[in-house]
Design goal:
The chain is α/β, with parallel strands linked by helices. The protein has helices at about 30-55, 60-80, 85-115, 120-140, 170-175, 175-185, 195-205, 210-225, 245-260, 265-275, 285-290, 360; strands at about 1-5, 15, 25, 165-170, 190-195, 235, 260-265, 280, 300-305, 315, 325, 335-345, 350-355. The strands form three sheets. Strands 6-5-4-7-8 form a five-stranded parallel β-sheet. Strands 9-10-11-13-12 form a five-stranded mixed barrel. Its cofactor is Mg(2+).
Length: about 400
């Protein structure tokens, strides 16, 4: 990725991010100045030629102005053309030639069926422009399928690199872990985000429900994070399938069209896509092969949100949406408690943590001090005499 360096000093440099993560600066100012000078000189030459030859039969200054506009248009076309790959250029050229050949055949039909005149000339020109344009666009779009290495010659040393398309599902965007995976460099190829997925995210972000609205906004933030990853190419496609209403089925058809893989954590979409022969990258399956965030025996502090399905269970959720099922915590709904993790269950449908709340340990209090024991005979002070009896005289 190349960016202009904001540092001062008047030097024209480019910031180049290499795959090793090191940022190096290379001088490009002289090259840019040379290109601008050559383009400017080309426009001046075209304007001067029109001034001398007067090809438009206008006053010399007007001819020079029209020539300058034509030269600027050519420079603009050249600037846009530099951004196109060689495969697309070859595909566009082949498509244009085929379109012109088809236009010639149509022109023969028009010549024999339409009387000579302005109408015939107009139809012939329109057919030629239409066929050339259609051939150009279609050939450019299909140019990526060309195998230049098979042509030999100067293309013999070029390696055939097939693009790896990975299509994002709405659920995996909202989940957010895809951004962490991309930032670590484990994700390559072209990340495809369909327009209908963006529309679904926007509908969720505009929902009246605060929970859904936060989920939608989180998904949009994750897409912005993905766009900032230097070694990742994000492509938003307009392909849609109006005959199909379900977004999951549209994703499957799009994966078939691009011969790509679907990245999701939706269990049902995973199964349906596999039945139709579409490769799926399940984030939950990836997490299943990694070490869990908690281990049995560890303590964690959670907020009991609701009642569980089983008797005397409470349910809590972590920040990433992981469900925590706590035994003996039904009476603690609406409170934050410390639980001990008993097990972690990771499946393709998601992750669940099971814990236990020890009620006795939570309510344990220091035992009261024992009461003073009664004195034992012979060890304490003498008991007072019994006043109820009489004392015999002389005793």
């Amino acid at each position: 990725m190349r960016k202009a360096d904001p540092a001062g000093g008047g030097e024209n440099v480019a910031r180049v991010h290499h795959t090793d993560g090191v940022v190096r600066l290379h001088p490009v100012g002289r090259f840019v100045v040379d290109i601008i000078f050559i383009r400017f000189l080309f426009v001046v030459v075209v304007a001067a030629t029109c001034y001398v030859l007067e090809p438009f039969h206008l006053p010399r200054l007007w001819d020079a102005g029209v020539g300058a506009v034509v030269g600027a248009a050519i420079v603009l076309f050249e600037w846009k053309l530099r951004m196109v790959s060689l495969k697309r250029l070859i595909g566009a050229a082949i498509g244009s030639l085929l379109g012109i050949c088809g236009a010639y055949l149509f022109a023969l039909v028009i010549r024999n069926s339409v009387p000579a005149g302005n109408t015939q000339s107009f139809l012939q020109i329109m057919v030629m422009l239409l066929m050339a344009y259609v051939g150009l666009v279609v050939g450019a779009n299909k140019g990526d399928l060309l195998n230049l290495a098979a042509l030999g010659g100067i293309f013999g040393g070029e390696k055939q690199s097939k693009k790896s398309y990975k299509i994002l599902d709405t659920s995996v965007i909202i989940d957010g872990r895809i951004a962490d995976i991309a930032e670590t460099g484990f994700l390559d190829g072209t990340i495809v985000t369909p327009q209908f997925v963006l529309r679904e995210l926007q509908l969720v972000a505009d929902s009246a429900d605060s929970l859904k609205r936060n989920r939608g906004r989180r998904g949009l933030d994750i897409l912005q994070r993905l766009q900032k990853v230097a070694n990742l190419q994000i492509q938003i496609v307009e392909d849609d399938f109006p005959a199909i209403r379900e977004v999951d089925l549209k994703l499957i058809e799009l994966a078939k069209l691009y011969e790509g893989k679907i990245i999701t954590n939706d269990f049902n979409l995973n199964k349906v896509a596999q039945l139709q022969g579409v490769e799926v990258l399940n984030i939950n399956e990836l997490a299943n092969s990694l070490k869990p965030i908690v281990l049995p025996g560890e303590a964690m502090r959670v907020f009991i949100l609701k009642e569980g399905k089983e008797y005397n269970q409470g349910v809590a959720y972590l920040d990433d949406g992981t469900m925590v099922v706590v035994d003996n915590a039904r009476k603690m709904i609406g409170k934050t408690i410390d639980v001990s993790v008993t097990s972690v269950l990771q499946t393709t449908a998601g992750k669940m943590i099971f814990g236990k709340w020890d009620e006795r340990a939570a309510y344990q209090r220091p035992a009261p001090a024992p009461a003073a024991a009664a004195p034992v005979a012979g060890t304490g002070p003498a008991a007072p005499p019994h006043n109820g009896g009489e004392t015999k005289p002389g005793a």
